[in-house]
Structures are given as C-alpha cells and as structure tokens.
Amino acid sequence: MTNETISVIEPKVFKEFVAAGSVKGASIHAVEQGLIVVIKIGATERVVGQYRGGPRYFQSFDGAAALLQQNGILTWDADTTNWTPRTSLRKQ
Fold it and tell me: Are 32 and 24 in contact (CB under 8 A)?
C-alpha cells in the first residue's frame, strides 16, 4: 500500500466521523516514510492527515495505536511489512 492510492482526511473531519459512528474499520500500514493510519468509512478508505495538511506519519507503533485508542477505536488491523521499529535500529 502506498499513501498516494487513497485520499487524506483532516483530523477534525476524522473526529466527526468517529463521533457519528461512521468509521467501520481501521488499520495501521507501513509506508516508506513511516506508519500511517487508514480508516474505513463505508466502502471508502482514507489516510488520517495532520493539521498542517498531508498524511500523518508515525515513527512508532505506539503513536499510531494511541491515535486510534484516544478516538475510541479499540480494534484494528496492522501490516508492518518492511518496517523496523526505531528501538531495533538502535540495537544494531
């Protein structure tokens, strides 16, 4: 998956969809720049963006998971193929 294949959703709009109960699923994916959070609204998938615009990239799985949990999304899928945690990089 590349973040260019799906559109970005602004954080404010993401929170509105969550509050309305419209989010039907979520996942965390590894991309070249880090990890992204993808949410499913109906049949549409969107990358959670940042307030300044563009996709929000996470360098830790904890950060991506915290975003979902803080917004009431407690289950999600993850694909971290080709992603290495920073703590593993320090040990090498």
Answer: no
The per-residue pLDDT for range 32-77, each reduced to its tens digit, is: 999 999 999 999 999 999 999 999 999 999 999 999 999 999 999 9
Dihedral over alpha carbons 24, 27, 19, 45 (to 10 degrees)? -60
Nearest-angstrom CA–CA distance, 26 and 14: 12
Domains of the chain: 3-91 (3.30.720)
**CA pair distance 76, 81, nearest whole angstrom:** 16
Laid out side by side, the sheet with 7-9 consists of 7-9, 44-48, 34-41, 23-31, 77-79
* Residue 62: both structure tokens together: 């904890």
How many Å apart are CA 42 and CA 4, to the nearest integer? 20
